[in-house]
Amino acid sequence: MTGKELQEQLTWKIPHIAAKAPEQVEAAAAFCEGYKEFLNHGKTERECVKSAEKLLLAAGYTVFDEKKKYQPGDKVYRINRGKSIMATTFGVCPIEEGVRINGAHIDSPRLDLKANPLYEKEGLALFKTHYYGGIRKYQWATIPLAMHGVLVRKDGQTVEFCIGEEPGDPVFCVTDLLPHLAAEQSERKLKDGIKGEELNIVIGSLPYEDEEIKEPVKLKALQLLHERFGVVEEDFARAEIEFVPAVKAVDVGFDHSMIGAYGQDDRVCGYTALMAEIETVNPRHTTVTVLTDKEEIGSEGNTGMNAAYLKDYITYLAELEGANPKTVFANSCCLSADVNAAYDPTFPQVYEPRNTCYLNKGCVLTKFTGSRGKSGANDASAEFMAKVIGIMDRAGVFWQVGEIGAVDVGGGGTIAKFIAKLNVDVVDLGVPILSMHAPFELSAKLDVYNTYKAFAAFYREA
Ligand code: MN
Ligand code: MN
To answer: 374, 428 in Cβ contact below 8 A?
Structure first.
């Protein structure tokens, strides 16, 4: 045996997918057309739930009824408070052998309105915001923003907003200083380039025509909101209104190999997990696809993964068959479907190149997240890593490993640790992303496609 042969036999190289499987370029591009649609119609968790429900209904899913009997192959879904959704295909095996879970989150970083947001200052009407999730605040100034969300009026009527997405719609924005006057601001640390209380959104500049009126621009804005939506100022206290980038998902690169869009963390895993769920036919084990809310603020709240809703849903599934839920959980396993930070050649210093994921090398298996000595991580077992890698290898899925950056540079978390609390085996798997949490994030189509293939294989084989 030559040294070269020995080297080939013993060492590990992760290939570029297009070099190994050029035929996937076209298949991935076709798959991602649906993904871009999903992104464009789902800019909030509520909108993603609606899009997901539409796709599930079209695929023959019905609303889950815990008092009904189901057969292998039956497909059901349940929505939790309009902000998270679970879908299931009943398996052939008894449920005591566990369920197979893919869990992604459909909330993304953004600017939320405060409860009393509207004010006027020197002839401009503005909204006060409180950012949601980990954003780099300076990235959110001087980009067009769209207004999404819901508000419940005093009369109990719910108003839904989606302004800034259609041609002819106005958009909104946070302002920044011109360079000519920014000398002092430019001395700030980058994290304070735009401060939290400077994330104020411009919404109007014309006054209500009555010279007696104080704050006439604010009144004009309220008048317009009232005419169109029946809204009064106090109604903002009964609202969840999110300002998000008013930008559509687009191809990036001369080769159209990438997608640039808002909210790919983690709607990319939401969409791929949902597609894998929908195409699953007569699985061995019952599937549970969950698209959850609130991951970006620590999975809190009753629509987040730290709440009881997933546990209760699986408990209902167990009880349908008279099985002990504890046994079901103990025999279940899960892919915590979330993105990871792709290597960025412009900022190599924060990565450890051997243990970082790269665009176009496939879905990224993340054994642990966390920070400073894996603190806050799930840290998947060797055995479960082996199981997931085996499934992907047998299915011809391109995969790689990755950590979030070099040791002690930073870190992050996912829903994995909350799934683990249920006594379920779990590991993170998802798509490498550049500019994560920015208003415009980048993914590679080949990675999106292989993540979908990984989720589908997991439902077939795990
Ligand atoms: Mn995420
Ligand atoms: Mn995130």
So the answer is: no
Residues with CB under 5 A from ligand 2 (ion): 265
Please name the residues in contact with 234: beta carbons below 8 A apart, sequence gap of 6 or more.
Answer: 154
Query: CA distances (Å), 432 to each of 198, 265, 399, in order?
Result: 31, 10, 11
**Centre of ligand 1 from the C-alpha of residue 446, in Å:** 19
pLDDT digits 0-9 by tens, 123-154:
999 999 999 999 999 999 999 999 999 999 99
Helix (H, G, I), strand (E, B) or coil at 135: coil
Going from N- to C-terminal start, the domains of the chain cover 9-108+262-461, 110-245
pLDDT digits (tens, 9 = 90+) for 294-337: 999 999 999 999 999 999 999 999 999 999 999 999 999 999 99
Residue 338 CA: which ligand is closest? Answer: 1
Q: Minimal CA–CA distance to 333: which of 298, 380, 292, 375?
A: 380
Superfamily for the 9-108+262-461 domain: Zn peptidases (3.40.630.10)
Rounded Cα distance, 446 and 346, in Å:
22
H or E stretch covering 95: none
The pLDDT score that the predictor gives to residue 456 is: 98
Which-ligand-closest: CA of 437? 2
Q: How far apart are CA 128 and CA 304, in angstroms?
A: 25
Whether residue 440 contacts residue 260, with contact meaning beta carbons closer than 8 Å, is answered with yes
Ligand 2 centroid to Cα of residue 298, in Å, is 10
Q: What is the pLDDT of residue 10?
A: 98
**What pLDDT score was predicted for residue 214?**
95
Architecture of the domain whose range is 110-245: Roll (2.30)
